[in-house]
Design brief:
Number of domains: 2
Protein name: Phosphotransferase enzyme family protein
CATH architecture of the largest domain: Alpha-Beta Complex
Distance between the termini: 51 Å
Shape: globular
Helix content: 40-55%
Strand content: 15-25%
Radius of gyration: 20 Å
Largest sheet: 5 strands, antiparallel
InterPro entries: AGP_Transferase, Aminoglycoside_PTrfase, Kinase-like_dom_sf
Organism: Microlunatus soli
Structural class: alpha+beta
Pfam families: APH
Number of helices: 10
Strand order of the largest sheet: 1-2-3-5-4
Number of strands: 12
CATH topology of the largest domain: Aminoglycoside 3'-phosphotransferase, Chain: A, domain 2
Keywords: Transferase
CATH class of the largest domain: Alpha Beta
């Protein structure tokens, strides 16, 4: 473990008043640090810090989700320390249940899991705050004035990266910019709600016996925006040939729209646009995925045209 990991363990031990009997540094993306610690047979806790996210704002998002009846992990403590990435930390209890990834997408309980997730999303999307996009400090508002502004900012950043890498043609870049301009009015007419915005089958914990959702973790990318974005983003961040969306989205979307028929008329068009958004972002994020994602994005632009 790095010096920052050792410092995190010391902070955790001081915060809970006990030294862990087992410590594991979790594999993470980028500048995020996560350490899993076993205190005893009945208590496993995590400490997290990140340079590119405010983990205190993540704690606020967790509190908002819990207030809406969404199962999440317990936040045990938060604090600051200059030796950790971002200078802030959060300690949470481990999630109950098992990750859906480990239970399996074809388990007999999958339909129940997706129906329960649709209910969790329905509750979450009843939470509203001023603004759009990422939550600001304290989780009391979002930082952009409009949903289209956030969408365009993220897509333009990704397109700039693709252009710099020579991964996308000028024609694709122009088509993408035009589509974003065309959709601005639709985006700003969308309802705004609290979104998890980065949920996958590793972050969704379930009871392996019943399929019920027991906990949703990793709220660092929470947004205020269109509820339909959450439906597309679920297991939507992999390569173009990732089988998960085709396996899980139809049932999840049907269960959600049955509970929320007010979104039905706009669902296909807007979810197609959000799939385009994710394709562009993932193409820029992982160069090996870029050709297939750009081809998919081109097809989505054709569909929306």
């Amino acid at each position: 473990m790095s010096p920052a990991h050792h410092r995190a363990v010391a902070i955790l031990a001081d915060a809970v008043g006990r030294s862990p009997v087992k410590v594991d540094a979790e594999w993470t993306w980028g500048s995020t640090l996560v350490v899993r610690t076993v205190i005893d047979d009945e208590l496993t806790i995590f400490i997290k810090a990140a340079a590119d996210q405010d983990v205190h704002t993540e704690a606020a998002a967790i509190a908002l989700a819990r207030s809406a009846g969404v199962p999440t992990v317990d936040v045990l403590a938060t604090g600051t320390d200059k030796q950790l990435p971002g200078g802030r930390w959060i300690i949470t209890r481990s999630a109950s249940g098992e990750p859906m990834q480990d239970v399996g997408r074809t388990a007999p309980t999958t339909s129940q899991t997706l129906d329960d997730l649709a209910e969790c999303y329905t509750r979450l999307h009843q939470v509203t705050l001023p603004g759009h996009g990422p939550l600001g400090p304290g989780g009391t508002h979002a930082v952009f004035a409009t949903w289209s502004e956030w969408q365009q900012r993220i897509i333009e950043r990704a397109l700039d990266q693709l252009a710099a890498n020579g991964a996308a043609s000028d024609h694709f870049l122009a088509r993408s910019h035009h589509l974003c301009e065309k959709f601005a009015t639709d985006l700003d007419a969308a309802p705004a709600a609290l979104l998890h915005a980065d949920l996958g089958d590793r972050e969704l914990f379930v009871d392996p016996g019943t399929g019920d959702v027991t906990s949703i973790v990793d709220w660092g990318d929470a947004l205020i925006g269109d509820p339909l974005y959450d439906l597309v983003r679920f297991v939507g961040g992999g390569p173009a040939d990732d089988p998960r969306p085709a396996q899980l989205h139809p049932t999840l979307h049907a269960c959600y729209l049955r509970r929320n028929p007010q979104h039905r008329a706009r669902a296909r068009r807007m979810m197609t646009f959000y799939r385009f958004h994710i394709c562009v972002v993932e193409a820029a994020w992982e160069p090996d995925w870029a050709p297939a994602h750009i081809a998919w994005a081109n097809q989505l632009i054709d569909d929306l045209s």
